[in-house]
Specification:
- A five-stranded mixed sheet has the order 3-2-1-4-5, with helices on both faces.
- With about 210 residues, the chain is an alpha/beta fold.
- Helix 4 packs parallel to helix 6 (about 170-185) and helix 5 packs across helix 6.
- The protein contains six helices and five strands; from the N terminus they run E-E-E-H-H-E-H-E-H-H-H.
- It has a single domain (about 10-185), classed as Nucleotidyltransferase, domain 5.
Length: about 210
């Protein structure tokens, strides 16, 4: 097996320490500027190691569209926040290799759909990633919550005692990762799709021609 080299994220993620260990999966969350799901204005990534460790990063993205007042009230991001942030098409090439090499977790399918729509809008190939939905995982672990608050992050925050700031992409990504780990502990088993070690131990060398952060 190969050993993972230090992983460098695009500069907008303000990475402070290298991620040297093989990754088990990445939890992903996005916030959007408006009602168009392609209008990604923040990306959050929670990197989960095989030891259960979680490293979280987030970055603002300039969606190049007006912000809806309701969205800004929800997540606190507006045009001034992203004025100097990079565009989606400038960030994705440096993230693609990683996002396609590791299993991805999202809390509902919103994030997968947003990435797909943003790729199409930017005329970029859609990610060839394997996505898992932590809502479905939570339903398996805690079926009693169906009709009793549900399996959204807001309710799971209270039920599981999670500590995060809802509607911040980095915080929500970490929460989704914690939901998966707590669900596995509750069920006494690993999620098979997220436990295939041979898929995850590799050198983090970007493909030829990819931009460097």
């Amino acid at each position: 097996m190969a050993h993972s080299a230090p992983l460098s994220l695009p500069a907008c993620f303000n990475q402070t320490t290298p991620l040297n260990d093989p990754l088990r999966f990445i939890a992903v969350d996005v916030e959007t500027a408006g009602y168009d799901i392609a209008s990604i204005c923040q990306i959050g990534l929670a990197f989960v190691g095989f030891d259960g460790s979680i490293a979280t990063y987030s970055a603002y993205i300039n969606p190049c569209v007006p912000f809806a007042e309701g969205n800004t009230r929800l997540h606190g991001i507006d045009a001034a926040t992203v004025r100097h942030a990079p565009h989606f098409q400038a960030v994705l090439p440096d993230l693609r290799y990683l996002l396609e090499a590791c299993p991805l977790v999202q809390h509902s399918r919103y994030d997968e759909k947003a990435f797909g729509a943003a790729c199409q809008l930017a005329k970029l190939p859609v990610l060839k990633s394997v996505w898992s939905d932590s809502v479905k995982i939570a339903r398996q672990a805690w079926p009693e919550l169906r009709g009793n608050g549900g399996h959204g992050l807001a309710n799971l925050k209270n039920v599981l005692g999670l500590h995060f700031r809802h509607h911040d992409a980095g915080e929500d990504a970490r929460a989704a990762a914690e939901v998966v780990l707590k669900a596995e502990a509750a069920m006494g088993r690993k999620i098979k799709l997220l436990n295939t070690a041979q898929q995850l131990v590799f050198d983090f060398h970007p493909p030829e021609g990819a931009r460097q952060a």
